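From the thread on structure requests for the teaching lab: each student submitted one protein with a one-line request. Submission from student K.M.:

"Model Permease IIC component from Enterococcus phoeniculicola ATCC BAA-412, tokens only."
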Amino acid sequence: MSEMTKKNFTGHLNNFINKFSNNVFVKSIANGMMMTLPITIIGSIATVISMIPNLPEIVIKACSLGTSISSSLITVYVIIGLSYSMAKEKKGDTIPAIILSMACFFVLTPVSKFDLGDDKVASAYDLTYLGSKGMFVGMIVALLVTWIFVKMVEKRITFRMPESVPTAIAKQFEAIIPGAIIFMVAIIISITFEATRFGNVHDFIYTNLQTPLESLGGSVWSALFIMFLSELLWFFGIHGSMVTASVIAVLFTTQAYANMEAVASGGVAENIINSFFLDAFKGPRALALAVVLVWLSRSKKFNSIGKISIIPSIFGITEPMKFGIPMIMNVTIFIPLTLSAAMCIGIAYIATIIGFLPIISVNVPKNLPTFLSGFMAAGWQGLVVQIIQFFAVLLLYLPFMKKLDKMNVAEELSTK
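Reply posted by the TA:
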């Protein structure tokens, strides 16, 4: 491939990826899901504590409540996060958008009635629809309702208040007409679906969209492909993790929260492939490469890059090496760059199906120090798996980095 062809291909690919990454819906999903991180980590910590043997009953109850509030209401938090992100992206009012999104979601969510006796009837929302099963409806509602609401305000489909009215009050009146229209449409949709065999929007979406996507997301081949794609994009100088974040949120997140819900209710997690698993076991690739550079390279350049990178690499930060070596458009290390993450996921998956690694049901921060993240996610078994991943990545990189190191040493000698 000629240099000109390479540049043209890379330019077209960058343009396509930039358009995809900057799409308002894609950015809203990625940023909105990130906002749920604090509450899910709190729930995960509660889950970990509850696994400690011989805890007092009061502590077990407290941990169960913490996990349940985190996982069983996850769709509510997702709606808030996505609606806020979409409103910010569209430069609209966040609070009215969030309230309207929540209102529309609850209109579309079926209410169950319970006979309490003595002519008393209780109405309640089924937590199933507020947890992982309702997440796709929540995501669709948050994104569409907020986008339409902001568009209607932009188009001045609102009450037009006199300039003398304070801005804060005027904005509230601006929300009335678009809010009423959107809310009425949600009511009509809800009533319409009640007349179908599905009974409600949730079961329709779950059957026709969420279940097929969960099947796709539950496949180890999907996970391996996403890991490969993320690093392939890095090869072309594109931040792969940022591009694939929204795809991972759509395909793998519901399985993660289903696991958390199952554990919170005293059940057993069943989904091996989920977003918590991918985040925790993409492998200590950065640290392994930094070790190769510091202790196994003779090139002064590589040695210096390794010393600079060793501390950041403990926290999974690869940019100093990606741009320093460089790894971008470097054909010599194309194979370890693109295969290392997929290999790590494969190792963790095999460890899980043979019964060594427990199915992951807790969320750990992505940038926890290497090995600590594995321990936090799955105890000592997680630590062992990450150590195995570390040596596997080191061995994968070694022959390719030796070749690259030899080339750099020869270049350094020739410039003396």
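TA comment: The chain has 19 helices and two strands. The longest helix spans residues 372-414.
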